[in-house]
């Protein structure tokens, strides 16, 4: 099978979406309300409240996503080895829920904050691949773009609501961050309960005659997807950097800062399902590359001639489109290339490569901002995205036998 065939649709209706997709989407919606309550204000809290340098923030931001690479692989391997993807995902969701309480005790200690953030991301690392594998195993291959689009749209609803809930809790509790953490924990526990009660596992016969890692690494299609995903992760800077640069340039009041994440999430949830369906029709690779094209424009706009509210609206719009074009579409693109019995491990391998590359990206961007300039850092990032797009198109595009 040539990699280019992975983006060919096999069906063109919504009937292939099972109840499992919507149940997993509900879990992600609830969990994202919890996590985004914290994440929406974290960059401002660390850089403005604790006075971290851009380089230090880049390190923490990288750790936030990239330091759990090994646990992503472990979660994928364990889910495939035990054939209990739901249990592994549930354990990951549970760790993230408990970590919300850890924020109560962390205070302003960077060491404690780092430990709690790492625990929270460890839970995400364990749960993501088993969850996405359950989606692929619950959906016909021709409907994967739609399935991931619907799931990511529901996830986006949670990401949209989370910052608004945080703002409401802060307003009702006299600006108490402890209240935000407690409410976030309670919501996260509810998400775990929904997973336990409504999500069905998708076990297959356990027939393995060679090591999982060896079987995956022998497949050139998998190697190309891992390489492309890692390269794209290396040229993607964190949301916090984008929002901080907007706040810095436009002098945005601190109280409005969380609304940048809200706007991005709103665009994401509106476009995730339609763009997932479009990817099934016109090709998943094409849609994904267009998403990274939108990201390039975002980086150029951060220090371009446009300013004021038109800049804020355009950046938020394009940033949301970027996520809608890439987040679930990459998993839909990769799914058919991965054998069912190794599906979770393969997804974990792809996500781990991207997360590890993202760690390097955050550190490098933070250093470039601090020791060169934010303008130079964003323009360098834009050029890097263009080069990564060309390389990805060459890796995953149509090839003759």
UniProtKB/TrEMBL annotation:
Its membrane topology: Multi-pass membrane protein
Native source species: Lentzea aerocolonigenes (Lechevalieria aerocolonigenes)
Keyword match Transmembrane helix: yes
InterPro entries: MFS, MFS_dom, MFS_trans_sf
MF terms in GO: transmembrane transporter activity
Transmembrane segments: 91-117, 156-174, 180-199, 225-246, 252-273, 285-303, 309-334, 355-372, 378-397
Name assigned to this protein: MFS transporter
Keyword vocabulary terms for this entry: Membrane, Transmembrane, Transmembrane helix
Location in or out of the cell: Cell membrane
Ranges of residues in domain Major facilitator superfamily (MFS) profile: 20-400
Top-level taxonomic group: Bacteria
One cellular-component annotation, GO: plasma membrane
């Amino acid at each position: 099978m040539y990699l280019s065939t992975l983006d060919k649709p096999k069906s063109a209706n919504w009937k292939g979406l099972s109840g499992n997709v919507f149940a997993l989407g509900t879990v992600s919606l609830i969990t994202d309300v919890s996590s985004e309550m914290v994440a929406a204000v974290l960059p401002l809290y660390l850089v403005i409240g604790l006075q971290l340098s851009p380089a230090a923030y880049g390190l923490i931001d990288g750790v936030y996503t990239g330091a759990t690479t090994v646990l992503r692989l472990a979660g994928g391997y364990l889910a495939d080895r035990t054939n209990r993807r739901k249990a592994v995902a549930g354990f990951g969701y549970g760790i993230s829920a408990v970590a919300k309480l850890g924020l109560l005790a962390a205070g302003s200690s960077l060491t404690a904050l780092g430990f709690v953030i790492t625990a929270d991301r460890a839970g995400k690392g364990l749960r993501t691949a088993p969850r996405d594998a359950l989606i692929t195993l619950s959906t016909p291959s021709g409907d994967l773009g739609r399935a991931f689009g619907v799931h990511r749209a529901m996830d986006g609803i949670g990401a949209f609501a989370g910052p608004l809930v945080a703002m409401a809790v802060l307003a009702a509790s006299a600006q108490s961050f402890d209240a935000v953490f407690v409410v976030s924990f309670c919501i996260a526990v509810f998400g775990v309960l929904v997973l336990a009660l409504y999500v069905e596992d998708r076990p297959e016969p356990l027939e393995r005659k060679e090591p999982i890692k060896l079987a995956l690494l022998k497949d050139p299609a998998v190697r190309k997807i891992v390489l492309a995903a890692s390269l794209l992760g290396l040229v993607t800077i964190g949301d916090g950097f984008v929002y901080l640069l907007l706040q810095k340039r436009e002098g945005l009041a601190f109280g409005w800062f969380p609304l940048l994440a809200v706007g991005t999430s709103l665009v994401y949830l509106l476009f995730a399902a339609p763009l997932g369906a479009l990817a099934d029709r016109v090709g998943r690779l094409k849609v994904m590359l267009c998403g990274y094209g939108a990201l390039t424009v975002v980086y150029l706009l951060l220090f371009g001639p446009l300013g004021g509210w038109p800049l804020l609206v355009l950046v938020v719009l394009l940033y949301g489109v970027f996520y809608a074009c890439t987040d679930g579409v990459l998993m839909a693109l990769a799914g058919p290339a991965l054998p069912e019995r190794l599906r979770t491990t393969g997804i974990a391998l792809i996500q781990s490569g991207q997360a590890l590359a993202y760690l390097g990206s955050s550190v490098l961007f933070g250093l470039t901002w601090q020791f060169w300039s934010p303008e130079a850092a964003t323009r360098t990032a834009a050029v890097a995205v263009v080069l990564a797009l060309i390389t990805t198109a060459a890796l995953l595009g149509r090839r003759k036998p």
